[in-house]
What does this fold into?
Amino acid sequence: MGEHGLMEVRLTGGEPTEHPDFFSIMHAFRDEGVYVSVATNGMWNRRTLAGLCREPSLWVICSIDGGREVHNRFRPGTFDKIITNLRCLREHNPSARIRVTTVLTRHNNKQMFELGKIALSLGAESITVIPLRPQVRNPEVVNDMVTAAEFRQVIEDLIAVKDRLGIPFTTTMETHYKSIIYRDPIVRKHSSCAAGREALNLDYNAATQKFQVYACSYSPASDLTASSTVRAPFLAGEFALDNLSALAAIWQDESAWTLYRDLSIRSRTCQDCTFLKHHQCTGSCPIQNIDYSAINADRDVLAQLREQIVRTGEWYCYQHILGSDETGGTSDGRS
Ligand SMILES: C[S@@+](CC[C@H](N)C(=O)[O-])C[C@H]1O[C@@H](n2cnc3c(N)ncnc32)[C@H](O)[C@@H]1O
Ligand code: SF4
It folds into this structure.
């Protein structure tokens, strides 16, 4: 797999470390020459922690959603254990790379320095801040999303954290900030959203022994409880465990990835935007900022998607974040 160009496999979930075959899956990919990262909640039991301490070339991407109090509000009673586990990992496995990932909300947007200090104390290499995304199954999260102005302030704070504490950051913002945002030394993305163009998701269904392939983990495709008609527009295909070469065919089938690769179905505002024309922006979030009439789906499915994805929140337009003074644009960021 590595020889055929697959750079990184990220084990995620759910909580990947709770899978009974977690370590053997990790080793199988590594034996194929693929770099493995683990997106985790850090709530490891003693056995998992001991195993991680023995792993060479380990990349742990651990969720910490703010300072102790804010983190515990979203993930009750877990902060202290996560910190203890990560400290232990750092002590016993000095070569392990640790990245702190924080979902940005109205509750932690003023805590970038606190997060920077936590990252520093853990010997973490970087912080990634992901703006909260609306989700079909949980649309009320929109109330926790930050505004464009708040997001910009967070980026400015992260730049100060980088300058003062030496902790670099990544986020889903590019354009003016591209040269400041940390580029991973091993796995480099070309744009802030890799979905469907640089990366894909695989969900394994043990009952059918098939993998489902899709671009975005915030889209309805990742919601196994959603109806198949709602998920369908976001799925790229599926293939059997014993037919791995089918994945290459799915990846090369442009029609399976239209939502993510065809920039002409971004909103009207984007079509007129110089950032899009100059390839500095790919139109923000591909599932929020889309012309849904371009999707071939039932009318009531489209109505549901519009209501729950498109109209539920800001899609972090860069013109909007940077302000019209810096871009010459006047967009309000919505189509
Ligand atoms: C789905 S989790 C899986 C890994 C692990 N179990 C964990 O809790 O971090 C992967 C990442 O997605 C983030 N995430 C979950 N829901 C999100 C949302 N609505 N918007 C943005 N990020 C989200 C999580 O906080 C985490 O950093
Ligand atoms: S309008 Fe906003 S989201 Fe669209 S291309 Fe321009 S900067 Fe990006």
Summary: The chain has a mean pLDDT of 88.
